[in-house]
Design goal:
PDDEXK_7; alpha+beta; elongated; about 450 residues
């Protein structure tokens, strides 16, 4: 899997449901090993500074737009009262002629001077927005520097390999973010001193919204960016939300969104979206460090009776599906509420080995295959019936079955055969795979509508 290739797609999808994610009371996540907490939203900062696949980052686009505006900013005519000496006025009106009888030192006239000014609501908006970005970046940097200090100290005091590795991973992320802030901070600071913004005092209040901002494409783009930025990057409260996103999570979410988009095409309608917090008693491994918002929440897409769920917890107290042993959280489940005894599991598998897109042998898939069998045997309806009809394991790398006949049988070549066998492996990494996946989803939906029967 090429992490850079999918990152933007995942973030764009997350933005559409961001308001659901961050209205939850689960934003405080542990970042260290001493029980400390902070709030730091780094996902969107990554997005705003992301330049994978030769794409220009959103921050750089913003800078370019502001520079382009500076060459031709919106202006208004302002009238200023001023006194001019009579001898400086070329044309004296008849009613002004009486002034000529006054003393030379008093021979002045009050006049209105009209000048073009950049002191407009649109330019005030840009000035205030730039000040906010500079303030946010400085604040973000101070928090990150404190985190870096804490983790470096933790790293020195720790002798456990697992903790050392976690410290190094966090330090790498935090240091990378500080480097990006050091790149962008002076650039946004210098933009505030552009000539067309010089007439706007620092600390000026946010202007009243004006429809004029939509008449100019550059201003409109900046306004739309501001609306997104003010919602997503840094909350207004004193804390910031620690929300990291790992490579394996990117692939899981990418698979989820491709499945969701495929189902949306089939039904030709947008789904209802719900984001719910998991009850404390069914959270898996609560003592483990929480990495992101999906550790304590699950996401649901609904098309009438068809349900697609991400990180849905299946425990001993669930109304529909339950387990006969420990609670589990499959990556993605899909089912028809009118036909609950046919459950589809989608499991996305990613690690650094597969990111290299090398061909993998059967041994690399053994643990994923065993885990899918565990899901199939553990999930029940009424503690008796096993509802899992099909388990699909997704990998981003090429799959070489070689002489492993068991693995070659698991590779998805015949859907009907896979439906009967119950477990299949599918390589999902590019457009041709997505097109084929959409055809598979059509067959799955047809089966779920017909109770799992052919035809």
């Amino acid at each position: 899997m090429d992490f850079d290739l999918y990152f933007s797609e995942v973030i764009e999808e997350l933005k559409s449901i961001w308001h659901k994610i961050f209205t939850l009371d689960t934003q405080e996540l542990h970042y260290g090993f001493t029980g400390k907490k902070t709030k730091l939203s780094l996902i969107m900062f990554y997005y705003y500074t992301y330049e994978g696949n030769d794409k220009v980052s959103p921050f750089k686009k913003l800078i370019r737009n502001i520079i382009a505006i500076s060459n031709n900013p919106n202006m208004s005519i302002r009238e200023n009262e001023s006194y001019l000496r009579i001898d400086e006025i070329k044309d004296i009106k008849p009613y002004q002629s009486e002034i000529l009888n006054q003393k030379e030192s008093d021979r002045k006239i009050l006049t209105l001077e009209k000048k073009l000014s950049t002191f407009t609501n649109e330019n005030i908006f840009i000035a205030v927005f730039l000040e906010k970005i500079v303030w946010d970046l400085k604040r973000l940097k101070s928090v990150l520097e404190k985190l870096i200090s804490d983790f470096e100290q933790e790293k020195e005091n720790s002798n456990k390999e697992e903790k050392l590795e976690k410290c190094e991973n966090y330090l790498e992320i935090f240091n990378e973010c500080v480097q990006k802030i050091d790149y962008y901070l002076p650039r946004f600071t210098s933009l505030r001193f552009l000539p067309f913004l010089s007439s706007i005092p620092f600390g000026f209040p946010f202007p009243v919204f004006s429809e004029k901002i939509y008449k100019n494409r550059l201003y409109r783009d900046i306004w739309n960016f501001y609306r997104e930025y003010s919602r997503f990057l840094i909350p207004d409260d004193k804390e910031i939300d620690l929300c990291l996103i790992a490579d394996w999570r990117i692939y899981e979410l990418w698979v989820l969104f491709k499945i969701k988009n495929g189902i949306r095409k089939i039904f030709n309608e947008e789904p209802e979206v719900e984001m719910k917090e998991i009850e404390e008693e069914v959270i898996i491994d609560t003592k483990k460090e929480l990495k992101d918002v999906f550790d304590k929440n699950f996401l649901t897409y609904i098309w009438n009776n068809f349900i697609l769920e991400y990180q849905y917890p299946i425990g001993n107290k669930n109304e529909i599906y339950r387990t006969i042993s420990t609670p589990i959280r499959p990556d993605i489940i899909f089912y028809n509420e009118k036909n609950k005894d046919k459950l589809i599991l989608f499991d996305a598998k990613y690690n650094k080995l597969f990111s290299e897109l090398e061909k993998k042998s059967g041994d690399d898939f053994h643990s994923a295959y065993v885990q899918m069998h565990m899901y199939r045997d553990n999930i029940r309806i009424d503690r008796i019936k096993k509802p899992v009809q099909l388990g699909m394991i997704f990998f981003p790398g090429e799959i070489d079955s070689g002489s492993n006949t068991h693995l070659s049988k698991l590779l998805l070549t015949d859907f009907e055969k896979a439906w009967e066998e119950g477990i299949t492996i599918y390589n999902l990494k590019d457009k041709k795979d997505i097109v084929k996946l959409e055809e598979i989803l059509k067959l799955i939906i047809k089966k779920l509508k017909n109770g799992g029967q052919n035809g």
